[in-house]
Amino acid sequence: MSMINYASREINCKLVYYGPGLGGKTTNLEHIYGKVSPNTRGKMISLATETERTLFFDFLPVDLGTIRGFKTRFHLYTVPGQVYYNASRKLILKGVDGIVFVADSQIERMEANVESMQNLYDNMAEYGYDVTKIPFVIQYNKRDLPNAAPVRELQEALNPGWPIEERARQKVTPDPVHVGRNLVEQIDTQWIGRAPYSEAVAIRGDGVFDTLKAVSKMVLKTLS
Amino acid sequence: MAGAASWSFSENDFQQIQAQLQAFLRESNARCALLVDRAGQLVATVGEAPQFDSTAFASLTAADFSANDQLARMIGENEFASLVHQGEKESMFLADVAKRVILVVLFDQRTTLGLVKLKGKRAVQKLTQAFEEMFKGVGTGPAAPQKGVLEGAEDEIDKLFG
Fold this sequence. Notes:
The structure holds 2 protein chains of 2 kinds.
Chain A: E1 3-5, E2 10-18, H1 25-35, E3 45-48, E4 54-67, E5 70-78, H2 86-92, E6 98-104, H3 110-126, E7 136-141, H4 151-158, E8 162-163, E9 173-174, E10 182-187, E11 190-193, E12 197-199, H5 208-222
Parallel strand pairs in A: 2-5, 2-6, 6-7, 7-12
Antiparallel strand pairs in A: 1-2, 3-4, 4-5, 8-11, 9-10, 10-11
Chain B: E1 7-9, H1 11-28, E2 32-37, E3 42-47, H2 54-74, E4 82-86, E5 91-97, E6 101-107, H3 113-137, H4 154-160
Antiparallel strand pairs in B: 2-3, 2-6, 4-5, 5-6
């Protein structure tokens, strides 16, 4: 739920990093916190257990620049990935403007990824939100590990596409990042849409800002 | 609804809200009042400037309120319309405004919880009215999207993200 304050000329948006436990959501925020100038970010809040597992959420506010005289402030949240924290995970989705799903590329975590993705769709639906119609980016993290599944397999399992019924959206839309691929295309007679994805090694910071930029841009474009 | 709707308020709305909060502070003798939206964004601050990070404070407030909302439902209540956190010296009173915003009042020994609650109740009524008018006035109910603030700014957005 972006909030536009004409008095202070600010646009505030909420981004949520979602995904299975130990997938790298908090690592994404920690990297952003470490790299962004202290002038353009606030304090990072982590509500975590003693063993540094996210208990409720992590929070990091960042300013991404000024457009049309409005400061664009993004509030980044992570959710607890562990299955049994669903009640608190759902609360964080309230008023979300954009979602990053951080998938763990390790082949052994495929089931956990699929379960978490399903859980995201379910929790969003309970608020009456539709994941396929809001800014949504998938990040395949831990690409450096030897047991990382091929992106093609991850795409098949987590981003197989959803039918596009609205005629206005039924047009071939190239993927701006992956040349030769489309985000919206017609397969046989059915129009299919997919979320854009990025590859990352969040612990080294690879792909972290690409993901943030992609989703933030999509959120701002919903206001244009 | 595809996603969460956005909402906006004008300078006039902002001044009206500030004036109401100031009146409440005078009557209750509380130190500071903040308005935070349910998604965790700070809407307004009035009174003594907080010494803490108010952005972080706002996000924690919304999470606190949402968690308590769920606890209320679990014990068979529709909601806890207000919450109190009482410390040795500093205390907080939180109350729902129009199901959309949370009023947070910080107070110390210069006043009492009773007075804050009493005056808070009236302030909440007035603020609820103001917010409901505001949503009506701009033609955006709580669920209607507010588009167009960056209309035609696609190029600028592209440039910002390189």
